[in-house]
Amino acid sequence: MAPVCVLVGAPGSGKTTTGRALAAALGVDFRDTDQDIEATAGKPIPEIFIDEGEEHFRTLEQVAVATALASFDGVLALGGGAILAEETRAALAGHTVIYLSVELTDAVRRVGLGVGRPLLAINPRATLKHLLDQRRPLYEQVATSTVATDGRSTEQVVDEVLSILKR
Ligand SMILES: Nc1ncnc2c1ncn2[C@@H]1O[C@H](COP(=O)(O)OP(=O)(O)OP(=O)(O)O)[C@@H](O)[C@H]1O
Ligand SMILES: O=C(O)C1=C[C@@H](O)[C@@H](O)[C@H](O)C1
Ligand SMILES: [Mg+2]
Is 17 assigned to a binding site? Predict the structure, then answer.
């Protein structure tokens, strides 16, 4: 069993929003590893960062991604930083991975003050710039296709992903 497709990209790229709409269009389930982690931990992501720290969160995330890749056959969205783990990048090999790219201007506009996103709680613009610079090569490395989302509506992004999946 494998997901129809896996969505990766930075915070604000629209993995959750686009993923839900894409799953609805395909008539399959949607799953988001951020929500799986919250269900397992029994608390929201910001509280995991506060109580146990980012490293612990990354461990939970690696397990959540591996579990979903092995047991889920719908549209799967990963957390923005999931691709930081080498094991996760390796586990994505052989899957259909769509990189939803977003540049700084649109990403900042979409995440606002970073509510619910602990890494962006302070100075979201500078932090996002750093995250994008650090992660762009990693998203590109795992992706089988890239869909640019800047200046495009969720519907336009979904349509492009659907046309990629039909190929
Ligand atoms: N193509 C788009 N155009 C405009 N706004 C969008 C688009 N896609 C998503 N958004 C908006 O941007 C915000 C962030 O989207 P979303 O939560 O789906 O991002 P994400 O990639 O899942 O982020 P995270 O990595 O933090 O989970 C939401 O308010 C959403 O409505
Ligand atoms: O970009 C990141 O590192 C994160 C993105 C979110 O999806 C969550 O997984 C968490 O807030 C960390
Ligand atoms: Mg999300």
Answer: yes
